[in-house]
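Hey L., structure's done. Input below.
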Amino acid sequence: MHPVTSFSALSLPTARLLILGSMPGAASLRAQQYYAHPRNSFWPIMARVAGFDAAAPYEVRVEALTRSGVAVWDVLQSCVRSGSLDSSIQAGTRVPNDFAAFFAAHPGIRLVCFNGTEAQTSYNRQVLPHLNTQEIRYVRLPSTSPAHAVAFEHKLAAWRAAMELNP
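Output:
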């Protein structure tokens, strides 16, 4: 097993919605980009929902997404894991990101969308007990990972419906 570390958040201070993954996968870590695996449906879904070109360069996609009021981060700052699967995270090695500081710097966030079950589970166990976030709503969405074998259209519909909750 290897220690892995997440990236800085993609965000502007005006963000209203936060999308949380658990920890970047191997392809993302190699590319130093969120959701870099070519079969991950995150960017195609976000492009349809937020109205930008999914094939645009990474920096252009990030700018379009953050300007639309969406922030992207991971629950975990670090963990020990082999490969990319959340199920490979070694017990007792999850270290959460500093959400108190993040929410203080992004006071407009009112909705947090979890990209899959592990993100929600880790947040609920590692983060939520230490926060006072009554104004924030939480929604778990189907993982955009190619390992989550659900049809793209189903994922898109769930993500679109949740993001419509974004004030």
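DSSP finds six helices and seven strands in the chain. The helical segments are 26-31, 42-50, 58-67, 99-105, 117-126, 152-163.

-- N.
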